[in-house]
Structures are given as C-alpha cells and as structure tokens.
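Task 17 of the worksheet. Students: predict the tertiary structure of the chain below and write it out as structure tokens. Keep your answer in the requested format; marks are given for formatting as well as content.
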Amino acid sequence: PAVYILPPSSEEICSNQNLTLHCIVKDFYPGEISIWWQEKTAQAEVDIPADNENHDCDHNSHQCSVISKLEVSRSKWILGTSYSCLVAHLSSEGIIARSA
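Model answer:
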C-alpha cells in the first residue's frame, strides 16, 4: 500500500483547539488492513486505535483505499508531540509508518 500522512494546515493550527491529522492509504487489495496511530513524546509512546473512515474498494480493478483521521490537541502539537500512522497489510513485508 501507499501511505501518506497530511498534517494540519497552518490555518487550522492558528484557529482551532483541536487539530486533525489524515492518514491516506491506497493501492492495496484485498480490503482487510490494520491501521493505528502512535503518539510519541519525550516520555512515552502510546498506541491509538484508528477510526477508519471512507473505506472504499473497487473489486474490478483490485484497488482499495481508506482515510483515517486523528484529532489531537493543538497544545500537544505545538509542544512537539509527534504522531505516526502505522499500516499493516498482507501485501507488505512489515509495518509501514509515516510520521507528522
């Protein structure tokens, strides 16, 4: 699968208390896939279950895609907390990670 992470926009950072990260996963088949998030601070790493929205499969072309969103607090983002989207699929050798 191809995995992309989109950080919050600068407009969102300036105006909102909560920010949204997007993890876009595409070009995988079959549709079963594991996605989770990880929050990393200087003190700890915490796994966060993903809320997989917009899961879509075209069975004719054998292509699936999914978007997972994670809402984080602006204060944690500004303090430098890092977030990763982790993806496991039977077509990949191991876990694919992308960080923001």
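Marker's comment: The mean pLDDT is 94. The CA atoms of residues 42 and 81 lie 8 Å apart.
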